[in-house]
Amino acid sequence: MATRQEARLAIFECVEVFYNRVRLQSALGFKSPVDFEQQLN
After folding, report:
1. What's the alpha-carbon Rg for the chain, to the nearest Å?
2. C-alpha span between 20 and 15 (Å, rounded)
3. Over its length of 41 residues, how does the chain's per-residue pLDDT go in tens digits?
4. Which residues, 6 or more positions from 10, have their beta carbon under 8 angstroms from its beta carbon?
5. What is the dihedral of CA 28, 23, 8, 10, to 10 degrees?
6. Residues 18/20/21/26 CA torsion (nearest 10 deg)
7. Distance between CA atoms of 28 and 26, rounded to whole angstroms?
8. What one-character-per-residue DSSP string does 9-20 give?
9. Which residues contact 30 (CB under 8 A, 6 or more apart)?
10. Is-above-0.70 flag for pTM?
11. How many Cα neighbours within 13 Å face the side chain of 30?
């Protein structure tokens, strides 16, 4: 990474794209947040 801002952006994207949306969450019955939300609709 060339700059601190680029590092922050890369970490943010990793958390928002993978960790929070794709990763299975035990509180949601081991479903991803996207799958859980689709189940509600």
Report:
1. 14
2. 6
3. 589 999 999 999 888 887 877 788 898 999 988 899 999 98
4. 1
5. -150
6. 110
7. 5
8. HHHHHIIIIIIT
9. 24
10. no
11. 0
